[in-house]
Amino acid sequence: MAAAPVANYVPFVRTGNLIHISGQVSNDGKGGLKGTVGADLSVDQGVEAARICGLNLLAQMKAAAGDLDNVVRVIKLNGFVQAGPDFYDIPQVINGCSDLMVAVLGDAGRHARSAVGMYKIPLGFAVEIDAVIEVLDRR
């Protein structure tokens, strides 16, 4: 189920055949994965946090597009990792989401992306990822 926003924004915006999905954090509904990757969380925990973000993105995609079958392509992911001062495996962490997109959507899940280390992520979550997707024109 798609999560509701926690501040003054909407979960997604559609313009033409593109949908911009707001950042989804590593919240699995049971507290999620919070912390700093490379300090108090391992790389594997970071990968799992990114996977959780991916599941949340898929829920938003379904809500925005009506059905995942209407997703033509994941255009871009922007991944943000709350990273320790000496942690540089940020792309490996974001692979948790990238790999999920391809596993669920096949070639339509292949995308451009950014993977960035951050000092802090809202609410203390380990990872946040936003997306731009293309959907079928059903208007």
TrEMBL record:
Pfam families: YjgF_endoribonc. InterPro entries: Endoribo_LPSP/chorism_mut-like, RutC-like_sf. Transmembrane segments: none annotated. Residues 3-119 form the Endoribonuclease L-PSP/chorismate mutase-like domain. It comes from the Bacteria. This is Endoribonuclease L-PSP family protein. The lineage of its organism: Bacteria, Pseudomonadati, Pseudomonadota, Alphaproteobacteria, Caulobacterales.
